[in-house]
Design brief:
alpha/beta; Rossmann fold; globular
């Protein structure tokens, strides 16, 4: 039985990477894990394309849970799930629980 994959999405690549590092230390290599953050130009932001890539990297037949930091990350994550489409989109959940406050 496979584990649910985890995707960390943050406006800051440093926050995303640091959070993913903490998660990796807690769950080990048994859980598929990916992260993304930043706008691609070194600034704050999120990217639908980067989120889709992270979902692909963390994909598991058990599904994927996406953890976000702020509202825009949640919105872009939801857009990424819609763009991925069925049947995989039914196995992806954008969690309404901010990773930072």
């Amino acid at each position: 039985m496979s584990n649910v994959g985890i995707v960390i999405v943050s406006h800051s690549p440093l926050v995303a990477e640091g959070t993913a590092d903490m998660v990796r230390q807690m769950v080990g290599d048994e859980v598929p894990l990916a992260w993304c953050g930043g706008n691609g130009h070194g600034g704050l932001g999120t990217s639908v394309e980067a989120i889709m890539g992270a979902i692909d990297k963390a994909w598991s037949e058990a599904g994927v849970a996406i953890l976000v930091d702020l509202g825009g990350a949640e919105t872009n994550s939801e857009m990424a799930v819609e763009m991925i489409g069925e049947p995989r989109s039914h196995r992806i959940v954008v969690c309404n629980a901010p990773i930072v406050e």
